[in-house]
Design brief:
This protein is of the alpha+beta class. About 35% of the residues lie in helices and about 25% in strands.
Length: about 260
Amino acid sequence: MKLFTRAAGMIGAALFLAVATVCFPVASAAPVTRVVSVMVPPAQEQAFNQGQRRYEICLRKHGEAHSMYAYEAASANLSHYLFLEPHRAWSGMGGHDPAGKACRKLFVHAVLPHIGRIHSDFTVPDARDTYMPAGEASPAPILWVHVYRLKVGQTRKFTDALAKLATAAARAHWDVHFYGMHAVGGGRADDEDFVWVWPYTSWADIGKARDPSLKEMMVRAYGKRAAQVNRRKLFAAVAASWSYVWRYDKALSYLPGK
């Protein structure tokens, strides 16, 4: 849904310039998701929601083929939205976009004026740091997103440590699933480097006691000493970390044919 990010550049040109010009160090066929983070002033929230819905009606009318999943913040700043546009490959973002062109004027006049701040980057999946058995609900109703900025030169140590968690989870058939992603193209020195996402089916699912716990699962898989070493290795690679909880917003999402 290229119009969203193209038009957004009008109010966030400095942020999007870095995204548009960076050379991504990934294979051309790698799956990629464009992530657009939008802050909406509370007084503009109703108008923003109405404008976004009008924009999506226009996209459907003109046959937009790409899905866009919307999430609203359930923690931290509650006037915060996340729009996820997945593609099978980097090349998928360069195709002809007749729906975006047709709906551009509507987006500029009905949506953009109600946005206070906007930022975009891309995420690339890391299969080694992912434990997602078949049968997952998509889109997940709730996402608990753990964000990491890593120390220089420590990415491999960090992902190796997470890979051991994923392996242990698979061995235990753990009922908490997660996936890891590298964040690229954010354009700022303090942007995240890695995102670890835990999807949940409900709030009750988040609060459910796990058996085994994460710590117990690691001890069973590797032994107490090795589990402790892995934990220290993981945290030693982290410069900063934070987390958000996001709730799926069906009304602001766009799924072709639905």
